[in-house]
Amino acid sequence: MDKPATPNSFRTGPDEQGMFGIFGGRFVAETLMPLILDLERNWNEVKNDPDFKAELTDLSTHYAGRPSKLYFAEGLTRHLREVSSAKGLGGGAKVYFKREDLNHTGSHKINNCLGQILLAKRMGKKRIIAETGAGQHGVASATVAARFGFPCVVYMGATDVARQSPNVFRMKLLGAEVRPVTAGHGTLKDAMNEALRDWVTNVEDTYYLIGTAAGPHPYPELVRDFQSVIGSEARAQILEQEGRLPDTIIACVGGGSNAIGMFHPFLDDKEVRIIGIEAGGRGLDGIEHCASMNAGRPGVLHGNRTYLLQNSDGQIMDGHSISAGLDYPGVGPEHSWLRDSGRVEYVPILDDEALEAFKLTTRVEGIIPALESAHAIAHAVKIVPAMDKDQIVIVNLSGRGDKDVHTVASMLGMEI
Ligand SMILES: *Cc1c(COP(=O)(O)O)cnc(C)c1O
Predict the structure, then answer these.
(1) When comparing pLDDT for 406 and 174, which is higher?
(2) What's the structural domain count of the chain?
(3) Catalytic residue status for 109
(4) Which positions carry N6-(pyridoxal phosphate)lysine (predicted)?
(5) 346, 335 contact by CB (below 8 A)
(6) How confident is the model at residue 6 (pLDDT cuts 50, 70, 90)?
(7) What average pLDDT is seen over the chain?
(8) What is the distance in A from the centroid of ligand 1 to the CA of 131?
(9) Is the Cβ–Cβ distance between 247 and 274 less than 8 Å?
(10) Which of 99, 95, 93 has its CA nearest to residue 73?
(11) Last residue of a domain, one of 224, 243, 261
(12) 314 and 199 housed in the same domain
């Protein structure tokens, strides 16, 4: 929330119009504009309000379990040193995990939901709407709505409702109404369209709780700021534990909220290499991936300009990933800007590579990572053996993998 004013900083965006260079903005229907401006006004009020910060910090501590630990992954480090030796390299950096998997509801999503529900309360809203893909953000939204006594409607693609029934049931237990969306392919993109439609028609009383650092301005900024607790903690923790900054930090990118939260506090530390991992799915040659920044083109979706998966007619394409949380055809606009400016590298990891990293981490660390997070670990597995022993890598463990055991079982040809 505090940004240095130096013109060379990577941390000053967005500008007044919500732009990160040519990305971002607010491409919304005229009817939505007053709501967006009202949200922006309220956000500008609370973001430097000590009372708001104190309430959020208190909830983050006692309800969500922050600060999350920065854990030296000794088992994985030892394994990758053996790999390094076997290759005759004799290296292998120290690997740390930022443990967002230990948060209430099992991922980083609660950081954003707590911030936004407090904002909704401040604004005097009476009703919460949210979109969800796999259901993780839907569950986190339903959780904070239950905690604060708001009625909550979650839009979810009909296809996703069918394949994510445990999360649908969780949301219902928490008191939310799940509305299946049959438009399009019935996935996250369609759910987001429907949530935006609901918002326009219920202007007065409704707060739209967006699940990632995308959407029209000011959402990318406010979601980033709520998630930046990840990177701020990690930065202080590594200075405390190792006495210096890491050489490399890695996070997976779906819409980009855990990644931008991890990256933002490090953007002006030039010596820190920053890598975002996209879902490479079954490879970038075909269409079965979700690597919008490696294989997409800039366009407008959900109120902002950003890199998108689109066909030659500019139609948005449905992506594919083994992990439902990385299965979004766009990406938050700040990532598009960081990509083009060269500050952050974006690299695809395939389904199979993520699955291997999932199995490896489970065996050598006794931690079952979310398949999304396993993408980030998979990239560490690739680069760490060639690094020196005194180097440090931090991987953001965005969530836990309990939700993924059915997917993994079927990938392995097993039944639970
Ligand atoms: C939702 C989710 C993601 C992807 O969302 P981002 O906005 O890109 O962070 C990654 N990891 C986990 C565990 C998730 O639940």
Answers:
(1) 174
(2) 2
(3) yes
(4) 109
(5) yes
(6) low
(7) 95
(8) 14
(9) no
(10) 95
(11) 224
(12) no
Domain boundary among 204, 224, 244: 224
Model confidence at 408: pLDDT above 50: yes
Per-residue pLDDT band at 7 (split at 50, 70, 90): low
227 CA: nearest ligand 1 atom = 9
Crossing angle of helices 229-242 and 219-227, rounded to 10°:
30
What are the CA-CA distances from residue 33 to residues 13, 39, 218, 221, 382 (Å)?
21, 10, 12, 17, 45
Spot the catalytic one: 40, 131, 233, 278: 131
Rounded-to-5 percentages of helix, strand, coil across the chain: 45, 20, 35
**Which two tokens mark 156?**
């979810």
Residue 13 lies in a domain: no
For residues 101 and 373, is the Cβ–Cβ distance under 8 A?
A: yes
* The two structure tokens encoding residue 410: 């079927």
Distance from the alpha carbon of residue 277 to the mean position of ligand 1, in angstroms? 11
Phi, psi of 100 (to 5 degrees): -70, -15
User: Is 4 a residue whose pLDDT tops 70?
Assistant: no
CATH number at residue 293: 3.40.50.1100
Domain that holds residue 236: 65-106+228-411
Does the pTM surpass 0.90? The reply is: yes
From 47, 94, 109, 189, the catalytic residue: 109
Phi, psi of 190 (to 5 degrees): -70, -35
In a domain, 179, yes or no: yes
Judgement on whether residues 77 and 183 belong to the same structural domain of the protein: no
Among 139, 372, 396, 404, residue to substitute to test ligand 1 (most atoms within 8 Å of Cβ): 372
